[in-house]
Amino acid sequence: MGQIRDESVNLTSAGTAQRFSATTVPALWVRLQARGANSGDVVVGGKTVVGAATTRRGILLSVTLTKIPGPLDLTDLWFDGTSTDDDIDFIYAERD
Question: What's the distance, CA 59 to chain centroid?
Answer without folding.
Answer: 10
